[in-house]
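Duplicate of #3305? Posting structure anyway:
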Protein backbone atom coordinates (compact mmCIF):
# COMPACT_ATOMS: atom_id res chain seq x y z
CA UNK A 1 0.00 0.00 0.00
CA UNK A 2 1.33 3.47 -0.76
CA UNK A 3 2.32 5.83 2.03
CA UNK A 4 -0.71 7.65 3.43
CA UNK A 5 -3.15 4.93 2.38
CA UNK A 6 -6.07 3.91 4.57
CA UNK A 7 -6.83 0.22 4.97
CA UNK A 8 -10.55 -0.40 5.40
CA UNK A 9 -11.67 -3.90 6.37
CA UNK A 10 -15.38 -4.65 6.54
CA UNK A 11 -15.03 -8.20 5.16
CA UNK A 12 -13.32 -10.65 7.53
CA UNK A 13 -10.82 -10.02 10.30
CA UNK A 14 -8.63 -12.91 9.22
CA UNK A 15 -7.90 -11.23 5.89
CA UNK A 16 -5.51 -8.82 7.60
CA UNK A 17 -2.26 -9.72 9.32
CA UNK A 18 -2.83 -7.65 12.46
CA UNK A 19 0.78 -7.88 13.63
CA UNK A 20 2.03 -6.52 10.30
CA UNK A 21 -0.68 -3.85 10.33
CA UNK A 22 0.26 -2.72 13.84
CA UNK A 23 3.87 -2.41 12.68
CA UNK A 24 2.85 -0.20 9.77
CA UNK A 25 0.47 1.86 11.87
CA UNK A 26 3.19 2.51 14.44
CA UNK A 27 5.37 4.03 11.70
CA UNK A 28 2.52 6.36 10.78
CA UNK A 29 2.77 5.24 7.16
CA UNK A 30 -0.83 3.96 7.07
CA UNK A 31 -4.15 4.41 8.77
CA UNK A 32 -6.77 1.72 9.26
CA UNK A 33 -10.51 1.49 9.75
CA UNK A 34 -11.50 -1.96 10.99
CA UNK A 35 -15.09 -3.08 11.33
CA UNK A 36 -13.95 -6.70 11.73
CA UNK A 37 -10.96 -8.14 13.57
CA UNK A 38 -9.45 -11.50 14.43
CA UNK A 39 -10.19 -12.27 17.18
CA UNK A 40 -13.43 -10.42 17.55
CA UNK A 41 -13.73 -8.61 19.82
CA UNK A 42 -10.12 -7.60 20.21
CA UNK A 43 -8.47 -8.20 23.58
CA UNK A 44 -8.52 -5.13 25.80
CA UNK A 45 -4.73 -4.80 25.51
CA UNK A 46 -4.67 -4.83 21.69
CA UNK A 47 -2.51 -2.00 20.32
CA UNK A 48 -5.13 -1.47 17.62
CA UNK A 49 -7.37 0.03 20.29
CA UNK A 50 -4.79 2.64 21.31
CA UNK A 51 -3.11 3.71 18.08
CA UNK A 52 -4.32 7.16 16.97
CA UNK A 53 -4.43 6.11 13.30
CA UNK A 54 -6.46 2.94 13.92
CA UNK A 55 -10.24 3.19 14.09
CA UNK A 56 -12.02 0.05 15.31
CA UNK A 57 -15.79 -0.12 15.10
CA UNK A 58 -17.91 -2.73 16.93
CA UNK A 59 -18.72 -4.71 13.76
CA UNK A 60 -21.82 -2.74 13.00
CA UNK A 61 -20.52 -0.15 10.62
CA UNK A 62 -22.90 -1.50 7.98
CA UNK A 63 -25.91 -1.62 10.29
CA UNK A 64 -26.80 1.92 11.09
CA UNK A 65 -30.05 2.50 9.22
CA UNK A 66 -33.00 0.84 7.56
CA UNK A 67 -31.04 -2.34 6.83
CA UNK A 68 -31.49 -3.50 10.43
CA UNK A 69 -35.28 -3.46 10.05
CA UNK A 70 -34.97 -5.09 6.62
CA UNK A 71 -32.79 -7.87 8.08
CA UNK A 72 -35.32 -8.44 10.84
CA UNK A 73 -38.18 -8.68 8.34
CA UNK A 74 -36.18 -11.14 6.23
CA UNK A 75 -35.53 -13.37 9.25
CA UNK A 76 -39.20 -13.26 10.29
CA UNK A 77 -40.36 -14.09 6.75
CA UNK A 78 -37.90 -16.98 6.52
CA UNK A 79 -39.13 -18.32 9.89
CA UNK A 80 -42.74 -18.12 8.65
CA UNK A 81 -41.79 -20.12 5.52
CA UNK A 82 -40.05 -22.74 7.69
CA UNK A 83 -43.01 -23.11 10.07
CA UNK A 84 -45.43 -23.34 7.13
CA UNK A 85 -43.31 -26.07 5.52
CA UNK A 86 -42.54 -23.88 2.52
CA UNK A 87 -39.33 -23.62 0.55
CA UNK A 88 -36.74 -21.43 2.24
CA UNK A 89 -35.52 -18.40 0.32
CA UNK A 90 -32.14 -18.32 2.10
CA UNK A 91 -31.37 -21.90 3.04
CA UNK A 92 -27.88 -22.41 4.45
CA UNK A 93 -25.88 -25.40 3.25
CA UNK A 94 -23.75 -26.48 6.24
CA UNK A 95 -21.05 -27.79 3.91
CA UNK A 96 -20.55 -24.23 2.61
CA UNK A 97 -20.06 -22.55 6.03
CA UNK A 98 -16.26 -22.63 5.78
CA UNK A 99 -16.44 -20.72 2.50
CA UNK A 100 -19.20 -18.21 3.20
CA UNK A 101 -20.04 -16.00 6.13
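Output from current build:
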Amino acid sequence: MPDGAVLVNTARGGLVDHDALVGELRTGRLSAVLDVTDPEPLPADSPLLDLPNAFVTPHLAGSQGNEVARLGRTVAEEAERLVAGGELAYEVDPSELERVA
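Confirmed duplicate; merging threads. The chain has a mean pLDDT of 90. The radius of gyration is 18 Å.
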